[in-house]
Write a structure and sequence with these properties.
single chain; Arc Repressor Mutant, subunit A; Four Helix Bundle (Hemerythrin (Met), subunit A); 11 helices; 3 strands; transcription regulation
Length: 240
């Protein structure tokens, strides 16, 4: 058996294999996150063809982690994989939207009530800062940043309630809503309404009024369902 010097480190072949697997999984995760963000934001629109070779070249990796990322996206309903034809960005599944709204109302209705009882002055200041940024982005027509702050507002409420894991669950549930809403804001001019609804929620939290906070959240989420017929008429190839 080869002797190692004091400065050498002997790595067992099995350990090397484990490191390789970890590196591949980490790379697949990074590719997944990038593609997920591009699909939800519509930078990669429904119907767009995705080429494993091109993605692998862009990331400077082999096709294996790309394939793993695409399989994960397929499980989440964001891409459709056709073995003989290729992979395309899936169309927005309208049938998934009403159910997602029901789940959001149930879970966020619960978190908002708890948040109303526990919110501190610092928590309210955090929400104020988010709303201020939303107003700024709405005025500037920056839909992408506006959406990011919208996500931050709802995530903050989950954190204030002490149940941050609920937001992690909701992020997977509401994917089709998010894709449709990327079209809703610029088309239907809903940004200002969203800001107003957030302010009503914020005021109820500041007053520690759980009943009012829940009512405001349910009203807000009821308006989340986009006018799919209107969007379909403008983007007929985006929905199924």
């Amino acid at each position: 058996m080869r002797q190692t010097s004091e400065t050498e480190v002997f790595v067992h072949p099995a350990s090397q294999e484990a490191v390789g697997r970890l590196r591949r999984v980490t790379t697949a995760g990074a590719i997944y996150e990038r593609l997920h963000a591009d699909i939800v934001s519509l930078r990669m629109p429904p119907g767009m063809m995705l080429q494993e070779k091109r993605i692998a070249e862009d990331f400077g990796v082999s096709r294996t982690p790309v394939r793993e990322a695409l399989l994960r996206l397929s499980e989440g309903g964001l891409v459709d994989i056709y073995p003989q034809s290729g992979t395309i960005v899936s169309r927005v599944r309208v049938s998934a939207i009403p159910e997602a709204v029901v789940v959001r109302k149930a879970l966020e209705g619960a978190t908002i009530e708890t948040a109303a009882l526990t919110a501190t002055a610092a928590d309210i200041a955090r929400l104020d800062a988010i709303i201020a940024r939303q107003q700024w982005y709405a005025a500037g027509g920056n839909a992408s940043s506006f959406h990011e702050e919208d996500e931050a507002f709802h995530e903050a409420i989950a954190q204030i309630s002490g149940y941050p894991g609920i937001w992690a669950i909701l992020k997977t549930v509401k994917i089709q809503i998010d894709r449709a809403r990327r079209l809703t804001l610029p088309v239907l001019g809903r940004a200002d309404k969203v800001v107003h609804e957030h302010m009503v929620i914020r005021d109820a939290l500041a007053a520690h009024d759980a009943t009012a906070a829940r009512a405001a959240m349910i009203h807000h989420l009821s308006a989340v369902i986009p006018d799919v017929d209107e969007l379909r008429s403008r983007y007929p190839d985006y929905f199924c």
